Amino acid sequence: MTTARTARADSHIRLGLRANLAQFTLLVAVNALVGGMLGQERIVLPLLADDVFQLSAYTAALTYIVAFGATKAITNFFAGTLSDRYGRKPVLVAGWLIALPIPAMLAWGPSWGWIVAANVLLGVNQGLTWSTTVIMKIDLVGPARRGLAMGFNEAAGYLAVAATAMATGAIAEHAGLRPEPFLLGAAYAALALGLSLFAIRETRDHARIEAARHPGRNGADADLTTGQIAWRTSIRERALSAASQAGMVNNLNDALAWGIFPLLFAAHGLSLAQIGLLAALYPAVWGGGQLLTGWWSDHIGRKHLITAGMLLQAAAIGLVAEGTAFGVWAAAQVLLGIGTALVYPTLLAVIGDVAHPAWRARAVGVYRLWRDGGFAIGALLAGALADAYGLRPAIWAIAALTAASGLLVAVRMYETHTRAPG
C-alpha cells in the first residue's frame, strides 16, 4: 500500500523548468533577497572600519570578511548534508531565522566585535539559504537546463547585491553610515522568511526521482559516504576538483573587491557615491551576465567558459591595480563582472553534471565549502600583502593567482556537459 501511494505521489512530480516554473520563480525571488543581505555590507562596512572604528591595519579591518567567509564555507558543507537528511525547506527556513538579528547588530553594534559577530551569523545565513536555493533549483529543472537554472539563481543573487550596494551607498551619502543603510536588510530578512515558510515547497522528491533514472555515468555510485564525496569533489575527480579550486580563487577575488577596492578608491579621493557606483558595477554585470552565460554553457559546454572567465578576471584585477581614475576603474569592474559571469553558474553546472543525484547536494556543499573559503583566504592574503607591501602590490599578486587558476582549469578539467533531452 505504501509503495502504491509513493508511486501515485511520484507520478505528479515532473522534472524541468517549464513544469516547475512557479516554484522556480519563487526560489529566484528568495535568492535575490539572499543577495540583498550581502549587498547591504558591500560599501558601508569597509568605510565603517576606517571612519567609525578607526581600524588602520588592513588585516584587522578585513576580519569581518574572514569571519563571514569561514563561517559560510563550513555552513555550506553542512547545508548539503542537512538538506539530504531533513529536506531542503527546513534548512532554508532555519537560514532566514538566523538572519533576523543581523541588520540590528550592524546598525547599532557598539564595537567592531559586534560587526564580526554579525558576519558570523551572515555566513551561516548565506551558507544555508544560498546553498539550499541552488540545490532546490537543480532538483526542479533536471539535467538538461542546469546551466540556465544556475544562471537565473546567481543572476538574481548578484543583481540584488549590486542594487542593494548602490542603494546603501546612496543612503549613506545622505543619512550617514549607520543605522539607515541597514534597514533594507531588516526588510529583506522578514520578507524572505515569510516566503520560505508559506510559499516554498519541498523538492527532495524531485532529486529522488532523478536518482532512480540516473545511468550512473563516470562510475558514479549512489552509496558514497560523505567523506568519500568530500575526497572525490576536492581531490580525486578531475572536473570536480578543478571546479573547487577555481571557485575558491573566484571568491578570493570577490573578497579583494569587497574589502580592498573601496579603500583604494577612497584613497584616491572618490566620493561615497562614486565608490558605490564602482562597487555596484561589478556584481551588476556579474549578475546580469549570468542569464546569458548559464544558458550558453548548456549549448557550448562548460570548460572553455570557465578558463576564459578566470583569465579575464586576472586581466581586470591587473587593470584595477594600474588605474588611477574613475573611468579606468569602471572599465575594470565591467571586465571583472564579465569574467565572473562566465565562471560562476558554469562551475555549479559542472558539479550538477558530474555528481550523482543521490549525493549531489553534498557535493554542492563540498564545492561551496571550497568556493566560499576563498572569502576568508582572500581577506587574509590581501590584507597581509597590503599591510606588508601596499594596496597595489597586493592586487597584482591576486591577479597572478587568478591567471594560474585559469590555466589549471585548462589543463585538468574535462568537458562535463552532454546533451540530455528535455
From TrEMBL:
Pfam families: MFS_1. The chain crosses the membrane at residues 21-38, 58-79, 91-108, 114-135, 156-176, 182-200, 255-273, 327-351, 372-389, 395-414. Keywords: Cell membrane, Membrane, Transmembrane, Transmembrane helix, Transport. This is MFS transporter. The keyword Transmembrane helix applies. GO terms for cellular component: plasma membrane. InterPro entries: MFS (IPR011701), MFS_dom (IPR020846), MFS_trans_sf (IPR036259), MFS_Transporters (IPR050171), Sugar_transporter_CS (IPR005829). It is found in: Cell membrane.
